[in-house]
Amino acid sequence: MVRLLSEKYGHLACLVRSPQGAEVLRSYGVDLVWGDLNQPESIKAALTGRDVLINVASLGFGHAAAVVDACVQSGVRRAIFISTTAIFTTLPAASRAIRVEAERIITASRLDYTILRPTMIYGKPGDRNMIRLLHWLKRIPVVLIPGNGNFLMQPVFVEDVAAAVAGCLEHDLTIGRCYNISGQAPQTFKAIVTEAAQALGQQVRLLHLPLAPCLALLQLYQRISPAPRLKPEQVLRLNEDKAFDHQDAARDFDFSPRSFAAGISREAALMEKRHG
Questions:
Q1: Residues with Cβ < 8 Å from 199, sequence gap 6 or more?
Q2: 64-74 and 96-107 helices, crossing angle to 10°
Q3: Most exposed of 2, 77, 94, 259 (fewest Cβ within 10 Å)?
Q4: Which of 99, 103, 43 shows the shortest CA–CA distance to 71?
Q5: Cα–Cα distance between 148 and 244 in angstroms, integer?
């Protein structure tokens, strides 16, 4: 996103709080402003003298009020916030109420805001979703699927999210609006796994497991493990349909995301390049 926006608009400044994040951003020639979302004064200092805020930090940690207040105090009116379609989950997710409240704070503010709600984002080096699947398939072309695997997903490529941000900046019609940002079309989880394997030039075997026993084992694992790598909520979320229409985004700022096949092929190629 930083690369696309810096190429399109020139000078950017990024708030960073870790040396690792700074190292990545330096290569794009942006200004680095050190700060912490837990320190409201540092947010205000970072925004002073700026024209637009693009908030890519998660809204699930309760910082929305401080960010909005810092915008108001520093004179920044135009702001684009990245939220998530996870606010529509029917599961008792711990962060859902925080995210919903964050959106309420933003929409009740005096800012010229736009809220973008991406589905699962993939395609970047730090991707915790599809890159994990690709690495797994590279080693073991067998995937265990809790349930029937027919639930729908609509992952969106990271560069398409960046294009959505740029599109909002170019169309004032988006001010005061919220948009779902999804991939080109919904697909079943089975189809997604199969296309990911094809992007690597491999065949994959899908092994279906009954959902109830999987959840019972994960609940036991969660009780005995101090830091479980997989939780029952994640499997339940996986079995929840996550297909979202983006026609209003296409209408208002020409949002036109790529197909999953094109996106996962790109990510697989980048992964192969990084790892030789």
A1: 134, 261, 264, 265, 267, 268, 269
A2: 20
A3: 94
A4: 43
A5: 21
**Residue located via tokens 């020409």:** 254
- Sequence-distant (6+) residues with CB within 8 A of 232 are 215, 218, 219, 222
Note the pLDDT of residue 229: 82
Q: Give the chain's residues under pLDDT 50.
A: none
CA distance 164 to 224: 43
pLDDT at 9: 78
- Tracing tokens 């929305």 back to the chain, one arrives at 64
Which tokens go with 64?
């929305």
Report, in angstroms and rounded to the nearest whole number, the Rg of the chain calculated over CA atoms. Answer: 20
Tokens of 84: 């998530």
**Beta carbons within 10 angstroms of residue 58's beta carbon:** 16
**pLDDT on residue 210:** 93
